Amino acid sequence: PSLSNAIEDAIPQGSAATLKLWRQGLDAIHDAHTKGEVLSQAVARNMVVCADGVIGFIDFEDDPAAHLPRAVCMARDALNYAQSTALFLQQAGAMEEAQKHWLAFVQQLPADAQQVLARTVKNWAGCAFCPAANDWAAIRCACWQRMTCWVCPPDICKNHSYSHLM
Fold first, then answer.
1. Which residue has the higher pLDDT, 99 or 48?
2. Which of 18, 95, 130, 152 could form a disulfide with 137 if both were Cys (CB 3.0 to 4.6 A apart)?
3. Average pLDDT value for residue range 48-76
4. DSSP secondary structure letter of residue 122
């Protein structure tokens, strides 16, 4: 099954089961990055849970590294995965615990990838982890007009320092 399907199927089992699968996906992305690889589209539907429990990747139709710096590719992988799984984490009540793992993952990225991630999130969606709402609201909002995340009042996201990403 795709990791997306597996995570969604785990929601009725509770936050621990959902979070375990989600962390496996995050760890698989980290492992790919530490091996010098970046992914084509690091969304949960393009990851599979193999019979031995290992997370595999599918759908390599494009090669972002052929056109983008490695730091941008790594930030892109992180945001793709977060965006594709945030709703499942919310539905399972796993956001608070997931935030700890997300921040640890971000801190393991090279400094240039952390900077790209912080800049991208600031310009794209407002904030990666919305302190005002104590939620990953902006990752889900797809706020293309740089307005705000769906939870924050209009003036909050524009004024975040984004230092919490680093």
1. 48
2. 130
3. 89
4. H
Indicate if the alpha-carbon torsion angle 28, 62, 84, 123 is positive or negative. positive
Dihedral, CA atoms, 39, 126, 23, 81, nearest 10 degrees?
-30
Residue 161, classified by CB atoms within 10 Å of its CB into exposed (0-12), middle (13-18) or buried (19+), is exposed
Question: Which helix or strand (DSSP H or E) is residue 57 part of?
Answer: strand 55-57
Task: Compute how many other C-beta atoms are within 10 angstroms of the C-beta atom of residue 71.
Answer: 18
pLDDT given at position 65: 82
* Total-model pTM: 0.74
Output the pLDDT for position 59: 84
* Radius of gyration, alpha carbons of the chain: 15
Q: How large is the angle between the packed helices 111-124 and 95-108, nearest 10 degrees?
A: 130
pLDDT at residue 121 in the model: 59
